[in-house]
Structures are given as C-alpha cells and as structure tokens.
Design a protein that fits this description.
The protein contains ten helices and 13 strands. The protein has 325 residues and is of the alpha/beta class. Bound molecules: oxa(dethia)-CoA.
C-alpha cells in the first residue's frame, strides 16, 4: 500500500555570535564553573545581541535549511515555528519569518510547547503532509531564552541559551512499512497538573508583562527521565522496532545527566546519543534542530538510519518522533 511519508530534505541552524562561559557567569551570580559542569554538563551558551530577535535567528536557520534542501521559499506550503520566546505577543514569529523570506502564499503559525516545541511542530507538520494538505513544510525551533531569565537566580540563569534550528519536511511516497524513509511515528503528551514546576511568572492575560522563568529543577529532573524513556519506548513499540534498532538519538539538550539517565533506562549505547548541551546549554525548542544539524554536518547520520528525536518541557509537555533518515 502506498502512503505519504514526511522526509527531512534539508536542515540548518544558527547560533548568535556572543558566547558566555560558565567562568563569566561567576561574575553575575554565586555559582562556579565546577558546579555547572558537574550538575549539567554545560560549559558555555550563546546569547543573542541586543536587538537580535527570535525571528532573526529563525530566519538565518531557515535560509540554511532551504539551501541544504536546494529549495526556495516559493516551494514551501507552510511554516511552523516552535518558540516560547516570540518577538511579540502577536502576530506569530512564524509570520515574521514568512515575510522575511519573501513568501506571500501558504500559511505560517507558531507552536508553543516550550522545550518540547520542536517535536510538537514536527508532529503537526507531519500530519499536514500525510493528510495531503502540504507538500513542503519549513519547521523551525527558535528561542531567545536569555530575555526571560532572571539573571539574579542562579538556579535557572546558568542553564539556558539562545539559538535556532530548522528542517524542511517534504512529502515522499512510502510503502507503509518501517523500512520507509521519513517520519514513521510521532507521540505527544502533556499533563497540565505540573504547570507550576516550570513556568514563566508573567503573561499578557495575567500580569500584562513578560515575566521570568521559574523552575523546581530537581522535580522536573525526576519526571524527565521517566517520561522520556516511556515515550521513546512507546514510539519503538508503535512501529515494531527495538532499542537495538536505533542508530542515533537526538534528544532535547537540558542536562547531560538526563541524557545519560534516559539512554541507560532504554539500554541505548551512550555513543548513539547526540550531545551539544556542553556548547549550547538548554535552548528550549531550538535544541533538537541545533543538535540534529550538527550531527548531520558531522556525517553521523546516514540514509536508512533509525533516528529518534525526544523532548520534555514546561506544561509538562513531552514527546518523540521516530524517523528513518
Ligand atoms: O528543558 C526543560 C526541562 N528542564 C530540565 O530538564 C531541568 C531539569 N533539572 C535539572 O537539570 C537539575 O535539577 C538542575 C541542574 C536544575 C539542578 O541540579 P540538581 O542536582 O537537581 O541540584 P539541586 O536543585 O538539588 O541543588 C543542589 C544545590 C542547592 O544547594 P543546597 O540547597 O543543597 O545547599 C542549590 O542551591 O546546588 C545549589 N545550586 C547552585 N550552586 C551553584 C543551585 N544552582 C546553583 C548554581 N551554582 N548555579
């Protein structure tokens, strides 16, 4: 039976020029390079320049993804942008990127699932493609988390960074088997009871201001390993594959200990886990496409490889996307 599959036709990423090391943060809050490395694996993060917006980072990543796919914006039907740090409350950052790409056809919208945003956006794009409503979709994860950090709160400000990544998803013919190229399955979850473990203490409807990120890190950590291992297991089960069949995992980059713990729980060789958290810190919705682009450019992913993307974030939200490259 012939089915439509969403294949990643190209990817790109962009990081702001400015790098801030852990050592530099020692001058900002009561912290140490040693503590940050030992508890998180983070060594540095990129921070957007003044006036450099989420849409600017997204645009650069998108141009690179289009070039990688050898496509122009004319060929896109849809733009889906995952962010928790939009340029404005409205309109969507996706429409700003659309305009900057010179695209006046199709549609563009934002998706908000914080650190799980890119997986949510990919799942949404995949459904548009499989239902025949779009053939080429630009999917972006872009954040300027530095703008919502409380730079006096050492428990959060050392953990995050800015950046953007993008992929082009294109419709291809498949046979409906797990040997097809493209996205084989996506699984999304949320549980709003955990809102107050990771949130921003402001918003247009509550405080009429942006607010700052607040997190009960230890509790988030506890849920993360379990939820991520569960959703990866669910994805493998859905397509009849086992942990041994996985060639590479591109996880959301929040904490090296979460990545190690999830790999161990799933029985996946740590060598198969793409790790960029030491260089980028946690860039929320941007972290998976940033890590994916790096892995692709390093030649770590080959045609036919089984790839898992997985993330967990505020809400709580979590999810996974299993694809064959
Ligand atoms: O992307 C969305 C998902 N987010 C996550 O997945 C984040 C999940 N959580 C984590 O990654 C970790 O819980 C953290 C990295 C946030 C914290 O690590 P932890 O090992 O859970 O540390 P903790 O919160 O239990 O704090 C241990 C100690 C505390 O001191 P006391 O109370 O033991 O005296 C903190 O005050 O470390 C202290 N501490 C710091 N010390 C130096 C907290 N932040 C810092 C800091 N520098 N930046």
């Amino acid at each position: 039976m012939s089915v439509i599959r969403s294949v990643i036709a190209g990817c790109g990423s962009y990081l702001p020029e400015k790098v801030v090391t852990n050592k530099q943060l020692e001058d900002v809050v009561d912290t140490s390079d040693e503590w940050i490395i030992e508890r998180t694996g983070i060594r540095q993060r990129h921070i957007a320049a003044e006036g450099e917006l989420t849409s600017d980072l997204a645009l650069e990543a998108s141009k690179r993804a289009l070039a990688d796919a050898d496509m122009t914006a004319d060929e896109l039907d849809l733009i889906i942008l995952a962010t928790a740090t939009p340029d404005q409350t409205f309109p969507s950052t996706a429409t700003r990127v659309q305009a900057a790409l010179g695209m006046t056809h199709g549609a563009a919208f934002d998706v908000q699932a914080v650190c799980s945003g890119f997986v949510y956006a990919l799942a949404t794009a995949d459904n548009f493609i499989r239902s025949g409503q779009a053939r080429n979709v630009l999917v972006i994860g872009a954040e300027t988390f530095s703008r919502i950090l409380d730079w006096e709160d050492r428990t959060t400000c050392v953990l995050f960074g800015d950046g953007a990544g993008a992929v082009i998803l294109s419709a291809h013919e498949g046979e409906g088997k797990n040997t097809d190229r493209g996205i084989l399955t996506t699984h999304l979850h949320s549980d709003g009871r955990y809102n107050d473990l990771l949130y921003v203490d402001g918003g247009p409807s509550s405080t009429k201001s942006t607010g700052y990120l607040r997190m009960k890190g230890r509790e988030v950590f506890r849920h993360a390993v379990k939820n991520l291992a569960d959703v990866v297991g669910e994805s493998l089960h859905a397509v009849g594959l086992a942990a041994d069949d996985v060639d590479i995992v591109v996880p959301h980059q929040a904490n090296k200990r979460i990545l190690d713990g999830t790999a161990k729980k799933l029985g996946i060789d740590p060598e198969k886990i793409v790790m960029t958290v030491h260089k980028h810190a946690n860039t929320s919705a941007a972290s998976i496409p940033l890590a994916l682009d790096e892995a692709v450019k390093q030649g770590r992913i080959s045609t036919g490889d089984v790839v898992i993307l997985e993330a967990m974030g505020g809400g709580f939200t979590w999810g996974a996307c299993l694809l064959r490259w």
